[in-house]
Structures are given as C-alpha cells and as structure tokens.
C-alpha cells in the first residue's frame, strides 16, 4: 500500500474543521446540549470530588446502575455526531433539518463497533501485560534491573497493541458511510505498512491541542492564584478549592475545556476520514 502522508492528513483534518465549523455545530448542537446536561447530572449523582487526603469512594450499586445508561447514552450520541461528520467529509453530506446528526441504524452499528473495538483493545492490552506483571512480581524487592525489564516489556507490548488496533481503525469511516462490504480484514489490508504512520498521525495531530491545553492551564492557574491567592493565604486548600469551583474562574475553565474537547473530537474524526480517503478510496480509484 502507498504510504499515508501524515502531515497532509493532519492539516486536512484541521483545515476542514475550521472551514466548516458552522456545519459541525449544526450537526452536533442538539446532542452536545444533551451531553452537557448529562455531564452536569452525573457528578451530582456521584457526589463531590474528594479533597486533600480523603479516599475516593465508589458509587453505590444503585447509583452505578443509574449512571451507566447515561454514559451509554452519551457514547451513542457521540457516535451520531461522528457518523454525520464522517459522512460530511467523505460524501459531502450536509445536515438536513434541525437534527443534524440523526439516530439511525448506521449510528447503532458505529456505536456497537466502537464498544467492541475498545473492549477488545483493553482485553488484548491486559493479556499482553501479564508477562510483564509476572516479571515484576518475581523481581519485587530484587534488583532494579528486573523492574526496568518489566517496564520495558510493558512499554513495548502497549505500543504493539496500539499499532495492531490502529490498523483496524479504518473500519469506522467505512461503517459511517454505509459500506457493508468493508470489514476488519479490509481495514487491516488497506492499512498495511502504515501502522506507524497512523500512530504518528494521531500523535502529531493531537500534540497542538495538548500544548494549547497546557498553556491554558498555566494561564488559568496563574490568574486564579494572583486573584484569590492573597485572600486565601498560603496552604489554605479549602479556600482555593472553593475559588476554583465558583464564579468566573469555573465558568471560564468550563468554556475553554468544552471548546478544546470539541476541536479534539472533530479533528480526531477527521484524521480517520482523510486517512480512509487516501488509503482506501484513492487506492481503489
């Protein structure tokens, strides 16, 4: 297979989003509002975050059984947005009607495939790390070389599992555009020789967002401490936590994180769409 142009794929994904940000908003506005509401409800049900030396408490069985469907619903709504954005990029499809991302059988297939994909990934990752865990247990309290070897094995196996699963990721754009003749074997074949390129596509593509997020956290925390640090006094964590979760600081941080999350999600979908276009559609042209 021809090599995937990593930089061009990343640039195309970002460029498409910024040129069509209005379309993305029309596609996802309703489900984004629903998910924002659910994101507020879930923490209220699970209780406040522990502070200081408090030990986190697991939610009760009843609470867990109640919030689990909410998380499933959020994942399903994200799948609806992903399908619509994939179809917009690959098919030029425009949102029709007030609900830009309809809920249909394609979304169901996409959601089920996503759940199975990530379950499979974590199962494979867990099984791959068992030898490293055994080495770590056998060398516990022994030489540092044994621990270093275990960490090396974990790192190698984790990267290997990621590379293997990234080769299957082209299945998602295919599902989104309704291709029932394109399965996991096809995704594996079309990504042949491009596992590392797909890996670096994700790494280089998300690196700017990570940098922007770190810069924002630094600026936000600097503004917070310079504004309320003197009032709270050094070491008064309760006062600082109250300042962080209230007023304009909380609202500003919420808006900034929401915008970064939307950009992250949109360009992540774009990475796969444009990789699919280059490795599948252009290869078959």
Approximately how much helix is present in the residues?
A: over 70%
Strand fraction: under 5%
* Radius of gyration of CA atoms, rounded to a whole number: 22 Å
- What about the largest sheet? none
Per DSSP E runs of 2 or more residues, the count of β-strands stands at 0
Organism: Oceanibacterium hippocampi
Transmembrane segments: 21-42, 62-85, 106-129, 149-177, 198-219, 254-276
Protein name: Glycerophosphoryl diester phosphodiesterase membrane domain-containing protein
Keywords: Membrane, Transmembrane, Transmembrane helix
In short:
The chain is mainly α.
Give an account of the 3D structure.
Keywords: Membrane, Transmembrane, Transmembrane helix. This is Glycerophosphoryl diester phosphodiesterase membrane domain-containing protein. It comes from Oceanibacterium hippocampi. The protein has 285 residues and is mostly helical. It has a domain of 190 residues. Helix content is 79%, strand content 0%. The chain is globular. The model has no long low-confidence stretch (mean pLDDT 82).
List keywords for this structure.
285 residues; mainly alpha
Write the layout of secondary structure elements.
Elements: H1 6-19, H2 21-46, H3 61-91, H4 105-138, H5 144-166, H6 171-176, H7 184-190, H8 195-232, H9 237-244, H10 247-284
Helix pairs in contact: 1-8, 1-10, 2-3, 3-4, 3-10, 4-5, 5-8, 8-9, 8-10
